[in-house]
What does this fold into?
Amino acid sequence: MNFDEEIRVRVCRIEDVLKKYLPPESGLQKTVLEAMNYAVNAGGKRLRPMLMSECAALFGGAPKKLLEPFMAAIEMIHTYSLIHDDLPALDNDDYRRGRKTTHVVYGEAMAILAGDGLLNYAYETAAKALMAAGSSELPAAAKAMAVLAQKPGIYGMIGGQVVDVERTGQPLEADVLNFIYTNKTSALIQCAMMIGAILAGAEQKAVAAVESAADKIGIAFQIQDDILDVTGSPETLGKPVGSDEKNEKTTYVTLMGPEAAGRRVSELSMEALGILEDMGLSEKNPFLKRLILWLIHRNK
It folds into this structure.
């Protein structure tokens, strides 16, 4: 099985997990449930639940009853953030993953509610892991829930988004740009990988190392997004290109140009791999290593 096939197999498994946990579209609130499911079912790389599962495998694996609710929850949180990112008040994008964005299909008010609904439902879903945990598993599940609560919040993803919104149209220093990337993008990748490690029983020192590696992976991922926003095509990306320029955003590409930004992607990815290699990455989970290398060269 080649790498693309391995990716497809894992994405299919994640889709099956999501189907188990997405809400049925019934009741008087049916419209918001349809909008929530529309956004989640738009597809995508499913990178965050994949990283969570693969990081758990790096440390010997975690029980499905604990891992799967958190995998579904992280994708719900990621999707809610995309719904809100696409709103007219923020990036004002009409297409995401090759389909019309949620606010275009369901209206702005319902898109806001769908994002809110996914965020709340994510924690309802993750709580199923706590309820399923045995007494020896409960401390790890509780630690994972704490990470899931913190990383997407005001000291993580939302905090980065705040600075991004406030500083749009202004020249940014490199340290401010790093703050935005570490929080707006890396925080959810850190969240995913840390939860995988925690649920697999990794020690605190190893979880901290995973957090550091995930930060580098997240920044590299965002820089590659910046590059693709300049060099990619709408057909390949499934969304408009040139949105950073349209929204007057400073990125690594505007600071240093696409070639130097590309080199920075490679440097950060190699640094992340070095941290994970100290934990036996190549022997214990070669797929995770290939996945991180693939992120450097992805075209969408």
About this structure: The CA atoms of residues 34 and 162 lie 28 Å apart. The mean pLDDT is 93.
